[in-house]
Design a protein that fits this description.
The complex is a heterodimer of chains A (264) and B (396).
Chain A lengths: L4 H8 L4 E7 L5 H14 L4 E4 L10 H12 L4 H13 L6 E5 L1 H7 L1 H11 L3 E4 L10 H7 L3 E2 L2 E2 L8 H7 L4 E4 L12 H11 L7 E4 L5 H8 L4 E4 L1 H31 L1
Helix pairs in contact in A: 2-4, 2-11, 4-6, 5-6, 6-7, 10-11
Chain B lengths: L8 E2 L2 E5 L5 H15 L2 H15 L5 E3 L1 H7 L2 E6 L9 H14 L4 E6 L3 H12 L3 E7 H6 L1 H9 L3 E5 L6 H14 L4 E4 L9 H9 L1 H14 L5 E5 L4 H7 L8 E9 L10 H4 L1 E5 L1 E6 L24 H8 L3 E7 H15 L5 H7 L2 H7 L5 E6 L7 H9 L5
Parallel strand pairs in B: 4-14, 5-6, 5-8, 6-7, 9-10, 9-14, 10-13
Antiparallel strand pairs in B: 1-2, 2-12, 3-4, 11-12
Helix pairs in contact in B: 2-4, 4-5, 4-9, 5-7, 9-11, 10-11, 14-15
Classes of the chains: A alpha/beta (264), B alpha/beta (396).
């Protein structure tokens, strides 16, 4: 059973979910492993790990820069999976998904990628430029190998598309809280509420909101309209500014702040 | 050979590999395009602009001195004589007309060499649109005259500082801006590339090149040519001239940019050296490394300096309908000088690639065969590049 099943129980118990995002092997492999473990200790409920792509057309400047730096440092799909495996060996127990673009998966082969992702200790995958229409080949392969397939619903998605997206989606549903790229505009609770209101009777998957959730106040606000939040750019900005030595402690403090806001 | 298969796929190529946010915008565009193409008044407005503003039909010129040397009849389809100096304007006028019909407020575009940027700025000025062009910081430096042209036409040029700071990064940024302002903004892609319906739409707006060529050949020669040659970056001028001939017994020669040579790794030969991949919303041949990261392309011609190729071009190449050849920077430069001296025409460096295979093509054909070469643009924009290479002692 996928570790993502645990999220349903947390939601049923009234909890609000917190999912931090980390670009793989940024700023370096060792620090990345420490960041994953620090996030767990600080109260995260699941983790999203970005496998960088040279052409991240859905990402804002912060995640673009992190992707470019980690690729320049020689990061590969293999090196990220090896780090996740190390984190698992050191006690990382949270559900974890890979977020990436389709080309690194296509190049490797969907079957091989899925097998290796599971072997590394991942539980799910989100491919940002693979809408449900194009996922007919990859999504069943990923699922057959035990990976949950997370899909997006955006503010622009017409309600008629919701069933199609949901039919491909497992683990949790990712609601894009702004019309834009990651880390750009501030998430708007009305926008999220409009989507989650319609989704309530359509799925029993946890519905998490991301893109533009930048601080404890916005996490708290958005969580009133969703089962939880995904926070990426704000954390990666902190990692970039703190440097390898200080990043785990600073990120842990930030996540504790988010946790407290969500629980308060 | 019909061109669009279900969901905009060409065999295994094409598709709509975009973030969910853009899927409804693509559906809206597809619906508006279908309606427009079925509307006589839209088609008539487009036709009139091509005639009265672009200056179509463009001539089919017999290159007499070169033909004598080669022992064939070489005809040049003179897209260099289009307003703004290249075929790019055909497509931007079509898309701006569509944007107007859809009630969009602003136009955005990516550009590499600046030709598509200039053509977009021109069409936007003609129809009173706000226009923003994304251009890699490197290209802004290399193509300063085109940046100034866009400014004079009222467009804002935004330098892109991410990634390799060239065309592919400009396209990434245009996609990001489109995602962010999708309700009000129309994104004009300059090649037969990107997510469906762009490859089919750009082909339809460019197919006038081949439709005219066919009529001109029948009028002048009483028959179709034996071969047609075009360069390919993304493939818009190639699909423009090839489309009318896909079902005819005419050899279609597509010429890729081989840059400094295939073995150096510094080239733009996506069909020859690429693997099937996904970039900018489409599945096609793509230059990429062992981990699926995109490799920067290289060509002396900025218009061919792109790591992918349009999906229909990939499909036609895979199916064997196209003869795919490649040409190095040096060979293209020699062809540039050759056409200037023999025919009094300065070709764009892109079109020079097509010309550079003419000896090989002529050798394969019977003497007296008719060959059409798509002279997709004029070379004035490339003077700085060519002159600096001459200064370094190369090229002639």
């Amino acid at each position: 059973m996928s570790r993502f099943e645990t999220l349903k129980e947390l939601v049923a118990g009234g909890g609000k979910l917190l999912v931090p995002f980390f670009t793989g092997c940024y700023p370096d492999g060792d620090t990345f492993v420490e960041l994953l473990l620090a996030a767990q200790s600080a109260g995260a409920d699941a983790l999203e790990v970005g496998i960088p792509f040279s052409d991240p057309s859905a990402d804002g400047p912060i995640i673009q820069a992190a992707s470019q730096k980690t690729l320049e440092a020689g990061t590969t799909v293999d090196s990220i999976m090896a780090c996740v495996k190390r984190a698992r060996e050191r006690g990382l127990a949270l559900p974890l998904l890979y977020m990436t673009y389709y080309n690194p998966i296509l190049h490797r082969g969907g079957e091989k990628f899925s097998r290796e992702a599971i072997a590394s200790g991942a539980d799910g995958v989100l491919v940002v430029d693979l809408p449900p229409e194009e996922a007919e080949e990859f999504a069943p392969i990923a699922r057959a190998n035990g990976l949950d397939t997370i899909f997006l619903i955006a503010p622009t998605t017409p309600e008629e598309r919701y069933p199609l997206v949901l039919s491909r989606c497992s683990g949790f549903l990712y609601v894009v809280s702004v019309t834009g790229v990651t880390g750009g505009k501030e998430a708007a609770v009305d926008t999220v509420g409009a989507m989650t209101g319609k989704l309530k009777d359509m799925t029993d998957l946890p519905v998490l909101a991301g893109f533009g959730v930048n601080n404890a106040a916005s996490a708290k606000a958005i969580s009133t309209a969703a089962d939880g939040v995904i926070v990426g750019s704000a954390i990666m900005k902190l990692v970039g500014e703190a440097g390898p030595a200080d990043a785990p402690a600073k990120v842990a403090a930030f996540i504790q702040g988010l946790r407290a806001a969500l629980d308060g | 050979m019909d061109q669009v298969m279900p969901k905009g796929h060409f065999g295994q190529f094409g598709g709509q590999y975009v973030a969910e946010t853009l899927m409804p915008a693509l559906a809206e565009l597809e619906g508006a395009l279908d309606q427009a193409m079925a509307d006589n008044s839209f088609r008539e407005e487009f036709r009139a602009l091509l005639a009265d503003y672009v200056g179509r039909p463009t001539p089919l010129t017999l290159a007499s001195r070169l033909s004598g040397e080669l022992g064939i009849n070489l005809y040049l389809k003179r897209e260099d004589l289009c307003h703004t100096g290249a075929h790019k304007i055909n497509n931007t006028l079509g898309q701006v007309l569509l944007a107007k019909r859809m009630g969009k407020k602003r136009i955005i575009a990516e550009t590499g060499a600046g030709q598509h940027g200039v053509a977009t700025a021109t069409a936007a000025a003609l129809m009173g649109f706000e226009c923003i062009v994304y251009m890699g910081e490197e290209d802004v430096k290399r193509q300063a005259p085109n940046v100034e042209r866009m400014h004079l036409l009222g467009a804002e040029v935004v330098p892109v500082t991410s990634g390799s700071r060239t065309l592919k990064d400009a396209m990434n940024e245009a996609i990001r801006q489109w995602v962010t302002h999708v309700d009000t903004t129309f994104y004009i892609i300059g090649s037969v590339a990107g997510p469906h319906p762009y490859p089919a739409m750009v082909r339809e707006f460019q197919r006038v090149i081949g439709d005219e060529t066919k009529a001109q050949c029948i009028a002048k020669l009483g028959k179709l040519p034996e071969a047609i040659i075009a360069c390919i970056g993304g493939g818009s001028n190639a699909m423009g001239i090839f489309t009318a001939f896909l079902d005819d017994p005419v050899e279609l020669v597509a010429v890729e940019a081989e840059g400094e040579g295939y073995d150096t790794g510094k080239h733009a030969a996506a069909i020859r050296a690429g693997k099937v991949g996904v970039l900018h919303g489409q599945k096609s041949y793509l230059l990429q490394d062992d981990d699926g990261q995109v490799i920067e392309a290289h060509s002396v011609s900025a218009g061919l300096d792109y790591p992918g190729v349009g999906p229909q071009v990939a499909y036609l190449a895979e199916s064997g309908r196209l003869t795919v050849m490649s040409v190095t920077d040096d060979e293209a430069l020699k062809a540039f000088h050759r056409l200037a001296l023999a025919e009094g025409i300065l070709p764009a460096l892109e079109s020079s690639h097509a010309l550079a295979v003419i000896d090989q093509v002529a050798k394969r054909l019977k003497p007296g065969s008719d060959v059409v070469l798509n002279l997709s643009g004029r070379g004035d924009k490339d003077l700085a590049t060519v002159l600096s290479i001459i200064e370094e002692g190369g090229g002639r």
